[in-house]
């Protein structure tokens, strides 16, 4: 029989948040960062220095038996401990900031580009540098209808005007 994992109630989940990024404590290692034991840090923030950094081993042992919701609002996947990090990287509901200023969920990126920025969609796999939208360093390349989002970084020191 498959090991049944428990989904925590929303009330409990909201008390179990990282004190740095405010996301659920679902990416290990989880550490305790206050001497009172009431502040924690998640693995997403592992590189952030904190005075205290005590491994919350008991929490991780319990978490193995739990399921957690995805941190992205519109995603309704429940994830097992250990699967969260990989899921967050590819979750279709993760918000992306389009260079036009709008925030678009990854799954609707293609649609957003088609509606608002058709000029940056390339149907063959070439990128033409057009000065008209050179400040727009993003292109969507359609290769056999599979979209690839490309960010272009170019060094154009010669073009920088000082006024
Ligand atoms: Zn965090
Ligand atoms: Zn998700
Ligand atoms: Zn846009």
From TrEMBL:
InterPro entries in alphabetical order: E3_ubiquitin-ligase_SINA (IPR052088), Znf_RING/FYVE/PHD (IPR013083)
GO terms for cellular component: cytoplasm
Any one GO molecular-function label of the UniProt entry: ubiquitin protein ligase activity
Organism whose genome encodes this protein: Rhamnusium bicolor
UniProt cross-references to Gene3D superfamilies, sorted A to Z: Zinc/RING finger domain, C3HC4 (zinc finger)
Entry protein name: RING-type E3 ubiquitin transferase
């Amino acid at each position: 029989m498959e090991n049944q994992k428990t989904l925590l109630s929303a009330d409990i989940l909201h008390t179990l948040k990282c004190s740095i990024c405010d996301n659920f404590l679902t990416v290990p290692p989880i550490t305790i960062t206050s001497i009172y034991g009431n502040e924690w840090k998640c693995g997403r923030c592992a590189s952030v220095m904190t005075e205290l950094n005590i491994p919350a081993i008991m929490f991780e042992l319990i978490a193995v038996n739990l399921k957690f919701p995805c941190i992205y609002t519109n995603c309704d996947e429940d994830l097992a401990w250990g699967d969260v990090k990989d899921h967050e990287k590819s979750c279709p509901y993760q918000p992306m900031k389009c260079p036009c200023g709008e925030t678009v969920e990854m799954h609707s990126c293609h649609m957003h580009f088609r509606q608002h920025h058709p000029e940056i969609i390339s149907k063959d796999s070439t990128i033409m540098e057009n000065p008209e939208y050179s400040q727009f360093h993003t292109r969507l390349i359609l290769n056999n209808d599979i979209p690839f989002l490309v960010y272009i970084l170019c060094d154009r020191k010669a073009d920088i005007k000082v006024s």
